């Protein structure tokens, strides 16, 4: 139980709660293991639970009518996802797929609803965090609407370096097994366009691209924004 409380305390969604409140939430948590490539839920399925990634990595994405994938976000260990279904009881707004073997905690909506009805202060704290998350989503929408593909790719790489980067000699290494197609999905363009822009970034010294990773020189890359 203490380990679960410590995990919850470090989450943006729960870091404003007291130890007693965290203990109540921790008591609701179940745990499941997922293999790489496993779909956790699909867009449109009934939203049944909030998820906490304990280890591994998860990809959140949407599919258009032609089946093309548009990546929204990568979930790191220690982060929550599908939290939006806590409040509206609706369907999952996107798909979640395991990209690295994962251990995931989950809290069922029905159990959380019962807890929130008994403790409105927990509900208020969660709503404030959700409002901050909405601001991030609005910024992503504005980026797609107002920035050209070069600036969008630079912005996404800087964000990925901030969230997933580890320091190395040449900058920040993005510790994600990203393909150029996945980068294209993140910014709403084609793989060929990403190939061309990455080539420009490489020649400028803004990024170093290897088979397994991308190293970002933040100061050089910011000049492309």
From TrEMBL:
Keyword Signal appears in the UniProt entry: no
Annotated GO CC locations: cytosol
Transmembrane segments: none
Span of the signal peptide: none
InterPro entries assigned to the protein according to its UniProt record, in alphabetical order: cNMP-bd_dom, cNMP-bd_dom_sf, Env_Response_Regulators, HTH_CRP, RmlC-like_jellyroll, Tscrpt_reg_HTH_Crp-type_CS, WH-like_DNA-bd_sf, WH_DNA-bd_sf
Annotated protein name in UniProt: cAMP-binding protein
Keyword annotations: DNA-binding, Transcription, Transcription regulation
